[in-house]
Amino acid sequence: MLRWLGAGLILASAFLMRRTLLETERRAQRIRRALAGALETMEAEVRLLLTPMPALLRRTYGTEEDLFFERASRELSRGGSLEDAWAHAAMALPLPPDERWNFAGLGGRLGGSEESVCAALTLAASQLRRRYDEREEQRPQAERLTTALCLSAGLLLAILLA
To answer: What is the reported pTM?
Structure first.
């Protein structure tokens, strides 16, 4: 009886692991989409209104990316450079490490002429959109693979321990 209970708990933990992994990827997708939209809005404001970067960082763009812009704005208001503020905020994003590093590198290209800032924002937004589209295309296959791996591992462990 206890073995069956243990096997059931192991399978339940496998389902929870699957759910956690899938939710992590969904959250990263929401962040990619929200940041791309915010960067596109920032690019338009720089181009059309010549809004300075500190003022743009203080604005709230949406729920998902709020924390990023709040951290960057707070770091900037403490006297940090734009590059450092952007990099510190980017490293806290719930994205894969390579995407965080790429996004953090954008901060170094945000200080300069209007054209260079707009080009950097447009490039970053397009990279985020492209990555978002790639992951959306791969999502059904990735979800099936995650499900298969979690359940297989759970079943294998349950069989070995039962």
So the answer is: 0.85
Angle ∠(62,90,122) on CA atoms, nearest 5: 70
What confidence score (pLDDT) does residue 53 get?
82
**How far from 30 is each of 19, 46, 132, 157, CA to CA, in Å?**
16, 24, 9, 33
Looking at residue 29, its pLDDT comes to 95
Distance, CA of 6 to CA of 135 (rounded, Å): 36
Q: How far apart are CA 63 and CA 44, in angstroms?
A: 20
pLDDT at 62 over 70: no
Report long-range pairs for 60-65 (Cβ below 8 Å, ≥24 apart): 61/34, 61/37, 62/34, 62/37, 62/38, 63/34, 64/30, 64/31, 64/33, 64/34, 64/35, 65/31, 65/34, 65/35, 65/38
